[in-house]
Structures are given as structure tokens and as C-alpha cells.
Amino acid sequence: MNILGIESSCDETAAAIVQNGSQILSNLVVSQIDIHAAYGGVIPEIAARSHIEAIGPVIRQALLNAELTIKDIDAIAVTHTPGLIGSLLIGTLAARTIAIINNIPFYPTHHLKSHIYANWLSGHQPAFPLLAAVISGGHTQIIYMEHHNNFKIVGTTRDDAIGECFDKVAKILGLPYPGGPSISKAATKGNPARYKLPIPKVDNLDFSFSGLKTAVLRTIQKELSLPITTPSYELQEHLSEYQIANFAASFQATAVKILIQKLKKATELFPTKSILLAGGVSANQALRTELERSFNNTHQVFFPEPKLSTDNGAMVASAAYYSIQAGEEPTDPYELDISPRSVIY
Ligand code: KG4
Ligand code: ZN
To answer: Which domains does the chain have, with CATH numbers?
Structure first.
């Protein structure tokens, strides 16, 4: 079964064709990072306009690269929630149009579910029951899955998402957007034990990341002997490259520690065979290394290939395949609902 997966929920315009949920025939991602970097974050209006330009060529190229025509496509899957409303609108409009014109079964797909299913690409088959840490720019959740297409949110963030925290700390340190890759690069030259940052005390399996961001800010102000009223954008000019590397490494190590501690606690509460990372932050090498070190003796550990950790169309196609296998009926493309916020998978 060939599924065309389309993704446009944030700042990547992406289309891919995946066979039987795991074999990638083509995978195209056009990133807008260079456009948004100038502003230090994603500008929704610019994102939507860029999707309009890219969506047609990206879908066409995905078919060309797979050496298929639209007649070879058995189903179309598209991200319909959550995301930036203008961005979602463009991908879903393109997907609906193609589905209607060619009479192809149509499957709206949840973005976070797709991130989890990136772990089934490249031939992996994680064993159930499993815990998935969905860690992206907009979300931080621990999901428990007893079988395919069955999602129970057992932990979530009470404020900032972990990726958002990477992005905000990077901004304070004067590192370029997106903050995750910049922090992990800077951290390779730093000492993770140089600054002691607090682990937030949050009950059960929930997270809080806004305090960690503020702790970085206060520690920098203290290190530079500046008053706490000094705005964050004034700090970077006083920081040496050496200090930036140490702050990046100390922050990253603390964020990783918070996540691993919660996953440990989750494995004590739920019988678990596999542990998965999903979402943009799962590209973080320090996190991958620490996850393997912490769980390799007790659980199977999975994370997507780095290029499949961030937004792409292949994961959308994979998620839809397993929904179809679980008996999900196609949606009428005329009836589609999109939603910027959603917690239901
Ligand atoms: O999943 P994604 O591409 O988009 C959303 O659904 O949000 O995730 C983007 C997030 C950004 O916050 C980015 O800074 C973070 O993933 N990210 C990373 C790394 N690569 C991307 N965070 C930490 N380390 C990385 N290597
Ligand atoms: Zn994402």
C-alpha cells in the first residue's frame, strides 16, 4: 500500500511516499528555517505564504523521486492538527484537492502521532507496550501505547515545551534559531557540570520547563555580576564563547536529566517493553546517548534517524498506515476539520 504523506503544520513543507508503513520511496522536506532565522522564530504569516509556494512542487517531486504517478497512490494522509492554522490550511487544502480530483481515500492525521510513528520507518518494529516521549517545539508529552493506534497521555508539560525551552535559552545565549541544534553544537565544547541548574519539582509524570529557562537567565546575570533587571537580550554581548559553551552544556544536561528521570518513573508505573523518542528534540545526540545508557539493559530503545526526528511527510504516511490497519475509515475530504490545538490523538 503506497501512502502519500503531506506535512505543513509549522515551517517545513514536506511530502513523502511510504510503502506499507515503513519503506520510504521518497521523502522531500523544504525547510523555511533560513527565512525565519532572521526573526529569531517562526512568523506564522510568512510560514503560510511560503507553504503556498512550495507545496505543489514538493508533492510533484515526491512522486517523481518515487518513480510513481498519482494513480499508484492508495491513500493520502495529511497533518490536520495541531499546528499553525495558516500553515495547516495550505497542506490540507492541497491534500483534499488531490484526493477529491483523483478519488483517493483521505486520512487526516495527528501531528504528534506521526512523530511517534517515525520510529516505524527504517524497518524498526518497537515491541508493545511502550512509552513514547513526544518532545518537540510545541509539545512535551509521555504517551503510553499498549498496541497500535492506542494513545494514553500519561505526562505533559504545565508550561513551556522542551523544544521551546531550547529555543529560548539559545536566544538568551545569542545562538541562532532553531535553538536545539545550536545549543547541542555549542555544548560539545562546554562542561555540563559547570553550572548547577535546578530540577523542577513537579508531581507525577508532568513537566515544567519555564523555571529552567529563568534559572539559566538568573545564573548568567549572577555570573556576570549584573542586576536581575538586566534584559536577556543584553546578556549575550557580555558572555565569552567559553561561558556560552558551558551554559549550553549545563542547560542541555539538565533538560536531558529531567526527561530521563520522568521516563524512569513512567517505567515504574507502567509495564513497558520499549522506550521511544519522537519529535524535533529527539534529534539531540546527548539525549540519545543518555537514553541508551539509562535503559539499554532493561528496555528496547528507539529513536528516529535524525532527519526523521524533525517534521517530515514520511512519518505522516506511516501513522496513517497503522490507523488504516487498525480499521480507521477514510474521511470525506469535503468535511475536514483543522485545529491549531488538540490533545486527542
Ligand atoms: O518536531 P519539530 O520539528 O516541530 C514541532 O512539531 O515543533 O521540533 C522542532 C523543535 C525546535 O524547538 C528545535 O529547537 C528542536 O525541535 N530541535 C532540537 C534539536 N533539533 C531540533 N532540540 C534539541 N537538540 C536538537 N539537536
Ligand atoms: Zn513536529
So the answer is: 2-119+308-335 (3.30.420.40), 128-272 (3.30.420.40)
